[in-house]
């Protein structure tokens, strides 16, 4: 499912991936529903296999919130944040789509400023950044490393920070949704479509409740998606390392042979030979690991492993046969 290529039904869709956010998602939806967006807006909640009461909370919100349309999609299991965002993008009907977390660390009122900035600047994408991130030290380090990895692999514009609080045009979202593989990295897909990118500074608040879902496993999955899905640099690096190891082996063998022939020094040194074998074996295994990861991902993509599976959708919006077209109101 992709965002409609026809006239959007509203000006803005706000996509919120939810994972164990039962304590905060209600407050977030209440604040978002009170925003005054020219042209109207909708809220899309995607539950990514939460193990708390997120499902019941989101279902209640989708059935009871009346100020704006609220759609709740429940995934069949935990697929990951980027997969959940892709599911939300597929359900979005707005001319612009904002994605944000459910933890209230991004103030809901900043949605208006982000939307206006995208409209006024004519950007395809706007990423937010903050002067001080109120995350744990582990998450800050992990996010910085992931951003550096993305900069290296994707060639990010200077100074761009890849934030989950972002605004996309419907065109970019539609093109990103053409990717149906099981390993989406939203920002990588976005950067394949456009380089019309803006930046907006926003506040970053302390976490409202609960604990962060940011884990080492999630971080490793993100690194792998960045490094292996959108760049051949790891393959090239492994090839260069292999060539370097072979060149070193040739030079070392040549030096030992010259010493033996010209200086009559016998070739000895079991320790040196063992070290050389360990080095070359380690490099070979590293290269095989990278190639194997690529092959495994290719196999899973070809075998049609799903990117996400929506178990059920609950929506507060009415679905007329011919939805009223979006009024092309100016962004102000």
Automatic annotation (TrEMBL):
The chain crosses the membrane at residues 239-262, 274-295. Residues 13-135 form the Glycosyltransferase 2-like domain. CDD domains: DPM1_like_bac (cd04187). The keyword Transmembrane applies. GO terms for molecular function: undecaprenyl-phosphate 4-deoxy-4-formamido-L-arabinose transferase activity. Keywords: Cell membrane, Glycosyltransferase, Lipopolysaccharide biosynthesis, Membrane, Transferase, Transmembrane, Transmembrane helix. GO terms for biological process: lipopolysaccharide biosynthetic process. This is Glycosyltransferase. It comes from Azospirillum cavernae.
């Amino acid at each position: 499912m992709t965002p409609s290529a026809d006239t959007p039904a509203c000006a803005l869709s706000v996509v919120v991936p939810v994972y164990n956010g039962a304590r905060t998602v209600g407050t977030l939806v209440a604040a978002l529903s009170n925003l005054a967006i020219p042209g109207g807006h909708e809220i899309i909640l995607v539950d990514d296999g939460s193990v708390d009461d997120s499902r019941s909370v989101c279902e209640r919100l989708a059935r009871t919130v009346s100020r704006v349309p609220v759609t709740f999609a429940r995934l069949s299991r935990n697929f990951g944040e980027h997969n959940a965002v892709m599911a939300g993008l597929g359900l979005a009907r707005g001319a612009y789509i904002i994605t944000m977390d459910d933890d209230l660390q991004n103030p809901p009122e900043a949605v208006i400023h982000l939307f206006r900035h995208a409209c006024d600047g004519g950007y395809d994408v706007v990423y937010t950044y903050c002067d001080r991130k109120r995350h744990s030290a582990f998450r800050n380090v992990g996010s910085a490393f992931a951003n550096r990895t993305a900069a290296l692999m994707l060639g990010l514009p200077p100074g761009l920070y890849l934030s989950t609080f972002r605004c996309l045009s419907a065109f970019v979202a539609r093109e990103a949704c053409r990717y149906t593989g099981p390993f989406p990295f939203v920002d990588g897909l976005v950067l394949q479509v456009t380089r019309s990118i803006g930046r907006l500074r926003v506040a970053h608040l302390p976490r409202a409740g609960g604990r962060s879902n940011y884990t080492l496993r999630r971080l490793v999955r993100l690194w792998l998606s960045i490094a292996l899905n959108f760049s051949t640099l790891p393959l090239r690096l492994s090839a260069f390392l292999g060539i370097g190891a072979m060149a070193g082996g040739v030079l070392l063998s040549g030096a030992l042979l010259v010493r033996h022939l010209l200086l009559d020094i016998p070739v000895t040194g079991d320790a040196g030979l063992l070290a050389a074998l360990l080095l070359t074996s380690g490099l070979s295994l590293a290269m095989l690991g990278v190639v194997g990861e690529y092959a495994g991902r290719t196999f899973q993509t070809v075998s049609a492993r799903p990117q996400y599976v929506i178990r059920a959708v609950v929506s507060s919006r009415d679905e007329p046969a011919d939805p009223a077209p979006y009024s092309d109101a100016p962004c102000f």
